[in-house]
Design goal:
It contains six helices and no strands. The chain is mainly alpha-helical and about 140 residues long.
């Protein structure tokens, strides 16, 4: 059964809740666990090909340390996703504080599909470079 599509009414609070959970996870990772490293990707370890998420955790960890360039090197779609999420939250918050006036970025149901596509294209490019030319990323 298909319900009605998600709108800003649901997406905006969901984004804030997700941000709060991620902030809590960051604080746990940074101050309680002492920034532990993460094991390598299971797909990479067993099949020696990149998966759509390969490098995503390292990109998040680099961003947490303020290393934007390193995060872009590890996994550009993660940085793009976080930038779009931040732009969405910022514009929605300002718009709501100004009485719903001015320019605002609205949620659209195509966003998740576009982001998944970006992750898949990144994976394809990395695998073509690795398998076709021997260039590891």
């Amino acid at each position: 059964m298909r319900g009605r599509p998600m709108t800003d009414r649901e997406a905006y609070p969901t984004a804030w809740i997700t941000l709060a959970v991620l902030a809590g996870a960051f604080l746990l990772w940074r101050f309680v666990l002492g920034e532990p490293t993460v094991s390598r990707c299971w797909i990479w370890e067993h099949w020696h090909v990149y998966c759509p998420g390969c490098g995503g955790t390292r990109a998040l960890m680099a961003l947490a340390r303020g290393q934007l360039g390193q995060a872009l090197r590890y996994h550009p779609p993660v940085v793009v996703t976080l930038f779009l999420a931040a732009a969405y939250l910022l514009t929605q918050t300002v718009w709501r504080l100004r009485g719903r006036r001015g320019w605002v970025l609205h949620y659209h149901r195509r966003w998740p599909a576009l982001l998944v596509g970006l992750f898949l294209v990144n994976c394809l490019v990395r695998d073509v470079l690795w398998l076709g030319f021997g260039i590891p990323l």
